[in-house]
Structure formats: C-alpha cells, structure tokens
Amino acid sequence: MVEATMNYDEAISKFDPVLGLEVHVELGTNTKMFCGCSTVFGAPPNTQVCPVCLGLPGALPALNKIGVESAIRIGLALNCEIAEWCRFARKNYFYPDMPKNFQTSQYDEPIAFEGYLDVEIDTDEGRKTFRVPIERAHMEEDTGKNSHVGGATGRIHGADYSLVDYNRAGIPLIEIVTKPITGTGKYAPEVAKAYVAALRDILRGLGVSDVKMEQGSLRCDVNLSLRETPESKLGTRSETKNVNSLRSVERAVRYEVSRHAARLAAGDTVVQETRHWHEDTGISTSGRAKSDAEDYRYFPEPDLLPIAPSREWVEELRAALPENPAVRRARLVADWGLSEIDMNTVVNSGALDLIVEAVDAGVDPAAARKWWTGELSRIANDRGIELEELPVTPAHLKRLEELISAGSLNDKLARQALEGVIVGEGDIDEIVKARGLAVVSDDGPLLAAIDEALAADPAVAETIKSGKLAAAGSVVGAVMKATRGQADAARVRELLFEKLGVSE
Amino acid sequence: MSDLIRKDASELAGLVSSGEVSAVEVAQAHLDRIAAVDGEVHAFLHVDTEGALVSAAAVDAKVKAGDKLSVLAGVPLGLKDILATNGLPTTCGSRILDGWIPPYDATVVTKLREAGVVILGKTNMDEFAMGSSTEHSAFGPTHNPWDLERIPGGSGGGSSACVSSFEAPLAIGTDTGGSIRQPAAVTGSVGVKPTYGGVSRYGIVALASSLDQAGPCARNVLDTALLHSVIAGHDPMDATSINAPVPDVVAAAKRADIKGMKVGIVKELGGEGYQAGVRSRFEESVALIESLGAEVVEVSCPSFPAALAAYYLILPSEASSNLAKFDGIRFGNRVGDDGSKSVEQVMSETRAAGFGSEVIRRIILGTYALSAGYYDAYYGQAQKVRTLIKQDFDAAFAKVDVLISPTAPTTAFKIGEKLDDPLAMYLNDVATIPVNMAGLPGMSLPIGLAPEDNLPVGLQIIAPAMADDRLYNVGAAIERELLAKWGGPILGMAPELAGA
Ligand SMILES: [Zn+2]
User: Fold this and answer.
1) Residues A384 and A486 grouped into a single domain
2) pLDDT at A238 over 60
3) Which of A40, B23, B161, B258 has the fewest C-beta atoms lying within 10 Å of its C-beta?
4) Phi and psi at residue A364, in whole multiples of 5°?
5) What is the reported pLDDT for B335?
6) Of the residues B179, B189, B303, B444, which is catalytic?
7) Ligand 1 centroid vs A51 CA: distance in angstroms?
8) Cα distance from A93 to chain B (closest Cα, Å)?
9) In this predicted model, what pLDDT tens digit does every residue of A430-489 receive, in sequence order?
10) Out of B324, B343, B379, whose CB is closest to A102?
11) From edge to edge, which strands make up the β-sheet containing A238-241?
12) What pLDDT was estimated at residue A480?
C-alpha cells in the first residue's frame, strides 16, 4: 500500500525533523568475533561455521582481540570516550538466523560513548558544518542470513520454506548510534547522507572494514520523527531498516519527512514501527510494530570476561590513528590549491590516496591528479578493475614527468609509455627505449611535414594569415600524424607561424 | 565377577602400565559389570562397548611399544551425558536432544582421550542438570546402589551411582549447585567441584554459565585427585578458564597431613533442618579433625541463608537464555513441522514437547526474573546477595584454611518422595550452593553411615579459589583414619546388587 505523502518543502515549512542514525559496520577481521571461522564474503552457504558460531550445545565464545581493538579505534576516531570497564550482554529473542536465540551484544556498558562527528554540507548560505552527536559505539555479532523461498514478498510470511546461511553469524559488528540529531531543518536528508559518507570515509581510513554498502558490510537504519517546532517535544519515530546506499539514506529521510507530515497534517498519528526501504521504488513500507517495551531480557554475558582496556593501550591506539579524512581533505585542498569541486572529483574517483602517494614521492600535485583522475581512471574503467590494481607506481609517474619537462616526451608519448607499464614492458626508460618514444627535436623533418600539410590544404595558409589562428590546429594535427605523434606540438606551431609570418 | 571392578583407579593404572593386566581386560570387566547390574541401577544412558574396547586396545598397544602413559591410562570412566562427545549421543537427559550426536568433543573429553582414559559411556542425569535426584531424567531415574528404592542424588546421579556400584572406578560430573557433591554424599563416594575456571567448560552443555563446573568422581581421595589433574588446566576455548598452574592435587592427596591447620565450621550450614544421623557423623568428623592436630573454630557466614533464594534467581535466569538454542531448527528433535506452521509455532511446539516440567518451570522463572521492570528486583538483587556471600567467604578464609559442613542435610531419600515438592527438592543443595555462588572448590567425602537408616553421610570441605589442593590434603587425612576405623572402604558395607 502506498501511503500519502506531502511535498517535502511544504512538510519542512510545517514541521521540524529530528534524525537518528544507527549504522552497523562489519569489521574486516580475518576471523569471527567469538570463534576462528573465516569471514570471507561469498563462500558457499554454511561452509564457514563451527560449533561456536552455530551455537551448538556446549560451545563457548572466545573473544577476538582485534575486534575489540577495532572498536576502540572507531570510538576514538568518533571522538568518543572509551570505557574503562565494560561487558558483553545477551540480547534474548527467538529468530532462526540467530544460532543461540540470543545475540551477544553490549547493552548499558558500551565500549565507546559520548562522541561526535562534524560533517559539512552545502547550504543556501554556503558550506556549513553540522555536529552529529554520537551516543555510543558498541560491539556485537552478526546474525546468519535467511532466504525465504516461494511466496510473493520474499519475506518469511507466505514463504514455502526458508533457508539459513550461518556463514555471516558471528562476524564482528560495531553498531554506531547517534543521539537525536536536531537543528538540521530542511537539510536533514543532506546531513544524514553526509554523516554516513563521513563515517564511511573514517572507517575506510582506519582500515577496519571494507565498508561496502552494497555487500552489507555497512548498513544503515534511519530513525525519523517530526515535531511542530524545535521547542516541541519529540514526536513518534519510525525506524527505516537497511537503507543501503548513500543516495537511499538521503531519499529515505526525505520520504519519511513527507510521509510523517502527511499523516500529522491529516490528524493521524505516526505509528512507532520498523519499516522496510525499497531502493527501486524509493518508498518505505510498514514492517512490524515496535514498542519501547520490547523486552530483550538483557543480562551480562556470563561466558565472557569483562573488558577493561588499559589507558596505556587506548592512548597507544589514539596516537596511531590516521588523520581524520575531513581534516586531511581540507589540508590537501589548501596545499594543492584545489577547488572543492576539483577535490570532489578526486575523492569520487577513488584516487586520493594514490595521488597523495605520488605527491609524497615528488610528483607535482597537478600532474599526479591529471594522471590518476584522467588517463589511469579511463584505463581502469575500461578494464573493469580498481585503480589500486594498476601496476603504476609513484616512481613511474615521477620519471614520466621528468621526461615531459625535459621535452623528451609529450603528452601523447607519455600515455604510450604508461600503457607499456600497464602491460608489463618494464620501467619508463626501458619502455621509451624499446618503443622508440622520443619527441622529434630536429626542425628539418618538421618543416618538411609542415610544407606537406600546407600543400594538401592550400586554403589554410590564407585563413591563418587572415588572423584566424585557430585554423593552425589542423596543420599541427596533420604534422603530428605524419610524425606518429613524436613531434613537439608547440614547436610545430612556432615553426608554422614563423613560416607564415604570423605572430601569436 | 572379576575382582578388577573393586580395584582403585590408581591400582588399575599400575596393573595396566606394568602389563600385568591389559586395558581391554579391565574395560571388559567393567562392561560385564554394567551388563549385570545396570538394569537395576540405570546409571548409564548409553554404553559405548565398541569405543571403550578400541580405546583400551590403543592403551595396550602403547604399553607393548613401551610408550610413556598418563597416570590414568587404561582406567574406565563414566561420563555425565552433559559433555559433548564426538560421535556419541549427548542427551543431557532430555527428549529434546534424543538422538543428537555432537560433531565435536568437549575439552574435558579431549583431555580424557589423550590421557588414555577409557570412556565406557554416558551417565544419567536430571534433565539439563536441573534436580537433586536424577528423577528428572527424561529416560527414567537412576537407583542408589545402597538401596535401589532411593535416589542417587542429582543432577549427576548416574555418575555417582556408576562409581558406587562398581560399574566404573571413575566418573565425570558437573556441579552447578551441588550436582557432584550431593550425589557423592548420598552414594558414599568422593566428588569434587573444582574452582570455577579450573576445568574448561567448553563442550559442556551450559545450565548456568557462571556456576557450572565439571569435576571428578571416584571412590577415594587419591583417585579423585588423579582424575582432577587430568581434566584441569587453562583452555583458550573457555574465556572464563583460569590461566594459572593447576594446584598439585595429587601431591596434596598423598601428603594427608593437617597438623596445625585451621578448620572452620560454618555455623549457618548445620543444626536445624539437618538429619540427626548426618549431624552426629559430622560431629564425629570434627573430633577426628581435632585429633589429627588441626584447630577447629566456628565461623559465621551471615549471608548464607539468602543463598538458596538468590541461586534460584541466577540459575533460572542464565538457564532460560542458555536453553533458548534448543528450538529444533539446527539440531535435536523437531516437533510439529508439518509444513503448515510458522517457524515460531514449530519452535514453541518443539520446546513444549521436548522439555520436562522442571526445565519448563525454571525457564519460566528465569524469563520472568530477567524481564524489564523485574530485573533489578530479582536478578539484580540476587547478584548483590552473591557479592555478600563472596565477602562472607573472604572473611572466613581470613581466619581459617578450610571450611567444613555436612554436604547434604539428609541421606538418600526415597524415589518419588520429593518429586512433587520442588522447594523440598531445592533444599537438598542448601549447603553446597554457596560454594558455587562464590566460585570456590568443594569436596564431598564419605564419613560413615547415619545410624538411623544405614545410609552414607558426606562431609563437605571448602577451600579458597585455586586452593583445590587443600581439599585433597584434608580429605585424604580424614579418609586414612576412617578406612582404618572401618577396616576398608565404606562401599564395602553396601549391599551386594542382585545382578552380581
Ligand atoms: Zn565459527
């Protein structure tokens, strides 16, 4: 059933949105949180399981220390306090994808709490920073995965039968929960998206997760409520589950604002419930009703010891944190003299780290950026591989740039040299030599080629002489073609104008 | 019947390692005994004849090859049916697990196998270890070899009965509130609950995770110590396992010298509510301990009267969660799955059909105690009592080296006598429960027969955490005097079973 919605701008003019975001991150540890099973994605069903993660009678959890370390690092990166002492708790409920019928999680003693993340968005008044308050980041284990076969909805109700794959059961998760995010006004969708994007960048920078939303290693639930004014008390919220792309985060917030507003304006109440997000249609549908009184009968997990990270360890981890991605970005924008738009292009191309590496090796920032976002992006794209998979090193780019500034390679020849690197012909100098890549620097053959080009198109000389210098392009092009690209285009142009007695 | 069955484990191990008797002969003698008397006793739920003979033969091969053997190689043992055994049924005395064969061994089982201990089979127990009589087994009760109309204690009645009926010289039990010690007391055998964390819980089906502990059962203190030394030690698979050297319990059992020790009588564990014969035998033991040169003083543990109530909140709470996995989805029996029902219905029908009444009672109790709005008043409050009990023990052990009390308030009662009265049943563990609540080691040692019914009485010895060796030192010192007084083991006074 499609529910009524109100135009977004109208909704925002009548109500004040309050956001809450819950993000689940699958950690990229080699083994699961409480057993030694592999966490590699995509294995055949139920091949990465053992008595522990299958919850067989008698099995006990053994804590993955890397999981705890990752949780602390995430907490620190999100400006959280790290608990001096905390415990796991059992969250009890029956569901077939949960091997023990309780989830080992954390309840009132999370490992990290009271943090924040600043995110920047474009507003009508220019770029603006919003501070997203973070309530907690806690450790827990993932569940298995149900697939419901038969039936119309793909859900458990109406299915002919269901299959469960426990490969995912026990994979370490960190759940990061914001406090209610207020004061965003009409920018709620943008703030939500910017927060998840910033969080993703931080997690990627920490190297704790591959943060692939499409594979479910980063999953987002969007909580939203509306109130009449920023002074009113919080309204009833809906919890939209599994909003699994950045675009969907923005759309889901927008949709829920419109849906809530329509209900409230019509005098209906908002139902407290979980909702399912549909990426294809861009709407959410009602899931199960949820009340605050839902009773998971939490109690401290007796099979695991309390965790008391020493302050020395925490400070060691803090000192070793990578630079915050947003801070780093601002620094690079200034150092490299880029516009925000240029920087966006760089970040979206996924080449930022590669460019930084090249610059650190002594390549000019503009050149490094040109190669990685241009030619190399094109090649990676053609081959359907990631930029990181190209065998191009900072040393390659450095040598290439040296040859270009010495005038012995031009842009076109440099691209050929890079192609040689990618197909494995050796280093730049070897390729230049083997392929005979060199700019023709003797004017004699160039002048001959210019004469030939002018003879082939007698009208063009007059056109240039009449002041239409742009017509020179076709002559230069012809010369470049005749010399198989090995001419220095600037020199050709110079010689042409000299010959025709034209000055630029 | 072969006289091998009446020999101590240490003696059998010596005969096997010297080649005088083969491990296969020893195993066969015990299998024959089981065939002869277990129809009456019903200590075993599953006898693994083939597996026992194969592992015995492996020990014999080692003897022939001159390999070094462990202290108990070739000695047969009964294993409580709560320990997961790869390839052998593990039911926990419950219908819900009838037919389940674990794909892995508990750590204790792995250690036993590595030590060449011959596992005869799986012993009977109250369903999921909930009970003090073994009457709550879904597969029928076990009978006390001293009087077949009486209970052998519980939950590990199968383990105590197999030892006291000479079906096995050794057994493994688990003790959550007294399930090793109370059965030992009422069957005239020795049982020890080690320090919590001293023996791995990995592979032992959990009742109450913070209380459960596996331990040794035998007919004398030295054999118990030998078995303790084989199964104890740190296990990375159990996060609550203690990473420290195992106390030298065998040396302590051989030392048997309590001169100059301070022994405390727990004032709150005795007196009213304890059977007259239990009290008189206990008083005799106190006199004996004094005669051996130890000083006996009375200590008070004022929080102990609240222990039983707190225990019956903590145990059901943890059990309600631990037993949630029994839903028929991944293993065990599934009931009601006719294709028309929802997964919730199938889970619910499976649990209703698979669990017995005592299990259901405790799951409901625990679910209630953990519920929002009740948690603080019940589970939270019980944890506070637990802290007070620990403080009582700390204060007591500041004054004395070990504490003593009767193990159980009465001797073995009649089968059926307390079955319909859960509270009367729960009271059997009143003296043993505080020990689990504080994670301490405790032993039950036979100290004679109650004059009024000629049934065995047990003495409980309690030591500080990781001082398990003190139990064996004190137990062995008392045992030596009693054996001299009785002219032989107490089990020699038990009636012959008809099968024999
Ligand atoms: Zn596993």
Assistant:
1) no
2) yes
3) A40
4) -60, 130
5) 93
6) B179
7) 6
8) 8
9) 998 888 887 776 788 888 888 888 888 888 888 888 888 888 888 888 888 888 778 888
10) B324
11) A81-82, A112-123, A126-141, A172-178, A16-26, A218-227, A238-241, A273-278, A283-289
12) 85
d(CA B226, CA B476): 13
Cβ contacts of B100 on chain A, cutoff 8 Å:
57
- Which tokens sit at B35? 């065939």
Question: Tell me, what's the pLDDT at A152?
Answer: 64
One-character DSSP codes across A59-126:
------HHHHHHHHHHHHHTT-EE-SSB--EEEE---TTSTTSEEEE-SSS-SEEEEEEEEEEEETTE
Contact predicate B464/B474, CB 8 Å: no
Beta strands A238-241 and A218-227 are: antiparallel
Eight-class DSSP state of B5: G
Q: What does the pLDDT look like over A272-293, one tens digit per residue?
A: 999 999 988 999 999 876 655 5
Residues A235 and A344 in one domain: no
Looking at the structure, tell me whether residues A55 and A201 fall in a common domain.
yes
Q: Residue B498 falls within a domain, yes or no?
A: no
Report the complex ipTM: 0.96
Which of A6, A21, A5, A327 is CA-nearest to residue A191?
A: A21
**Domain span including residue B401:** 3-303+387-493
For residue B468, being part of any structural domain is answered with yes
pLDDT at A294 over 80: no
Active site residue B317: no
Average pLDDT, whole number, for chain B?
97
Q: Which of A93, A98, A101 to mutate to test the interface with B (most CBs of B within 10 A)?
A: A101
pTM of the model: 0.87
For chain A, give the percent of residues with pLDDT over 70. Answer: 97
Test B97 with A164 for CB contact under 8 angstroms. no
Residues of A in contact with B347 (CB under 8 A): 94
Which has more pLDDT, B490 or A158? B490
Same-domain check for residues A37 and A107: yes
What is the distance in angstroms between the Cα of A100 and the nearest Cα belonging to chain B? 5
B210 belongs to the catalytic site: no
**Contact criterion met (CB below 8 Å) for B491 and B188:** yes
Q: What is the pLDDT, as a whole number, of residue B188? A: 98
- Read off the pLDDT of each residue in A138-147 and give the average, rounded to a whole number: 95
Distances (CA, A) of B328 to A58, A84, B256, B331, B344: 16, 40, 50, 6, 11
The DSSP symbol for B97 reads: G
Contact call for residues B84 and B105 (beta carbons, < 8 A): yes
Q: Cα B241 vs. chain centroid, distance in angstroms? A: 18
> What is the DSSP code string of A158-200?
T-SEEEEETTSTT-EEEEEEEPPB-S-GGGHHHHHHHHHHHHH
Q: What per-residue confidence (pLDDT) applies to B500? A: 52
Q: Does A56 touch chain B (CB under 8 A)?
A: yes
Within-domain flag for B333:
no
pLDDT, position A501: 83
Domain-terminating residue out of A388, A403, A435: A435
Stretch B420-444: mean pLDDT: 94
Question: Is the alpha carbon torsion for B237, B241, B244, B245 positive or negative?
Answer: negative
The CATH number of residue B182's host domain is: 3.90.1300.10
Is there a contact between B83 and B90 (Cβ–Cβ < 8 Å)? yes
Mark A428-446 as b/e (b = at least 16 C-beta within 10 Å). beebbeeeebebbeeeeeb
| pLDDT for residue A1 is more than 70 | no
Residues B84 and B331: their CA atoms lie apart, in Å, by 13
Residue A433 to residues A401, A409, A481, Cα–Cα distance (Å): 16, 12, 21
